[in-house]
Amino acid sequence: MPPTHHPTAWDDPATRRAWVKLVTCALLGQILWLAAWLGLLVWYVTMSLTWTLWLFFVPLLYSFYRAFLQPSYISWAFHTRRLLRAYPWQVFEEPENGIGKVPGATAGDVWLSFPNPERLDEKLPMILKVHVRSMWWRRRLGRGYTTEKTRQIREVWFAGDPRFAAVIAAPGPRRFHVVQQRPMNRRGVADPRDASPAALERARCAGVRLPDANSATG
Length: 218
Fold this sequence. Notes:
The protein is an alpha+beta fold. The protein has 2 domains: about 10-85; about 90-185 and about 195-205, no CATH class. It has 5 helices and 7 strands; from the N terminus they run ααββββαβββαα. The chain has helices at about 15-45, 50-85, 135-140, 195-205, 215, and strands at about 90-95, 95-100, 110-115, 120-130, 155-160, 165-170, 175-180. The strands form 2 sheets. A 4-stranded antiparallel beta sheet has the order 1-5-6-7, with helices on one face. The protein has a 3-stranded antiparallel beta sheet with strand order 2-3-4, with no helix packed on it. A hairpin with a 3-residue loop joins strand 5 and strand 6. Helix 1 runs antiparallel to helix 2 (about 50-85). It starts with 12 loop residues before the first helix and ends with a helix.
């Protein structure tokens, strides 16, 4: 069955398999980077030769950084699952994209544009900020579809609401990446953007932080 025929992206078996691979890599990364840091730390403490101390100092710092960062990858994987459980896949052929020149984007930010589900004539750009997780996408977006590399994202799978947040993926699906709409306030609460009550409820089920209904009407 084509992925767009499922009620939600999570109902697609290939999507579930891809997510299991994603979260497994995140959990293994947590174990391995922590083990690498502890091993290097023991080596660093026990070695007495000055040149070996300098040799292992940078790997020690980097492994500590990755071990500290890895829990965010695990959290991100489960955020991905919430979105996949709430929204179906949509497939976009050659979606509009670019570098900079949209509100909220700096000169180096890349973006993809998707239609507002309640106003199909309105396109909403979603910005991919500079991050190691967005690197694969950033190397392909904003450059047309003429090279072998850029043709890898000629078809984009999309599960979400461009007014709030979504998972984008290359066909398969593979290369999951969560994109969030801006502006958000400093607490990470999204702008409701005049969305219908049903759309807001669905976004909340997907893990999007929205203003409390009472405060929004007050």
